[in-house]
Every structure is written in structure tokens, then in C-alpha cells.
């Protein structure tokens, strides 16, 4: 049985004071929630403050990115060692905004996944198609291509550690959401491809999140789908009440 996993991606939001306020409000709302894994992904400048507040709680810490390099002349990058040092257990990798605005590719995603796994950090690997690609009937080609290439550095014996987040680009921050049936169809295809890559047992153990305008009002129906094991939440994770409601929907 796969444990649901709800992660909040704060993106480029919150000062340190705002981050502390949000975590302080969130902790008591989910302290008694069992049977679901919870994580938040603040900006790099807020990681230390949030890490301190999360100690002893049931909420884990994720970064929004990770460098594929261990150290050296990589201005602006943050290494796996640095993330571990501040308390990160997870790292979001290959988010569509990183691909769209900052030129990340399947190749760089694969290298970042490798860096995370080599350092005991769980990679949350994002894949998803644009509206043009969906309307052109290319959803499965695009999504499964990103999956195969992004996981090219992953060994069969470690594959169950990886988390996959399917985020249709046309549903991120737009208010549009894939229907539960649309999301399930893609998630089922992802799991079938994972079985080809890593074997059925490993594929059955890998958790698949859905992301893209997830909110309290649609979370329960999305999370009730057979192959949807959690959510990567954007805007709704910036409000403690809304994020807590999504987390509770995962075990309702």
C-alpha cells in the first residue's frame, strides 16, 4: 500500500517572516493527521528558518531544486550536501517552470536526480505536457518521454525511492485542472511505463503525485483515483487552512 504524499511548493513566495508564520499556522492543523507524508518546499532563503520550526513535527522539508554538481564554480547553484546540511529530505526536480524559464532539460533532470539519490535525498521528478501538446494529441509521447529520459540515471533497486509528479503545464497556476479521469489516464500510463523500466513490483511502489491547480474542493476526487498517490500543491499550499484541507483529503 502506497502512503499518500502531499507536498507544498511555495515557489518564489514568502519572506523569512512570512515562512515562519505559515509553518507556525500549519503545524497544529496537521499534527494529528496519520497515514500521509507531508512536505513543504520553501525558497532557499527560508530553508533554515523552516527547518528549525519543523523539528519534532510530522512535516518534512524539501528544496525547490538541486544542483547536479557537488561543489565548485557553479554560481547560483545549491548542492545536495548544502541541502542535507540545512535539513532537506526531498528535492523538487524538473518543474515545468524550471524547464520553461531556465532551460532545464531531460538531461539535466537526470543528472539532478542522480545527485539527489547519491546523497540520500528523495527526488520529486516533475513531468507534464503543454496545452498545445495536449491538443495535438502528444500527451503520452511528451510525458512518457520526459519520464524515461529524466529517470535514465536511476537503478532498478533504487527506483521505488523516487516520486513522480505529473503536472500538466496547462493546469499550473491557471485555475484549470485535469479532470480526475484525465489525470488517472496519464498516471496509469506512467505506472505502466515504470513497470517496463523497473519491473512491476517497483512500479507498484513508486508514488505518483498530481499537480496543477489542486485545491481543497477537488483534492478528494483526484486523490481517490487508483494511481494518484498524492499531490504537489502550488498556490493552495501558501494558505495553512487550504493546504491542511488537502492533506486531510488524502486520508479521508
Overview of the structural elements:
This protein has 252 residues and is of the alpha/beta class. The chain has one domain: TIM Barrel (Alpha-Beta Barrel), CATH 3.20.20. Helices cover 44% and strands 15% of the residues. It is built from eleven helices and eight strands. Strands 1-2-3-4-5-6-7-8 form an eight-stranded parallel barrel, surrounded by six helices.
Name the overall outline. globular
H/I helix tally: 11
Radius of gyration: 17 Å
Q: How many β-strand runs? A: 8
**Percent range for β-strand residues:** 5-15%
Corresponding CATH superfamily: Aldolase class I
What is the rounded distance between the termini?
16 Å
Question: Could you report the average pLDDT, rounded to the nearest whole number?
Answer: 96
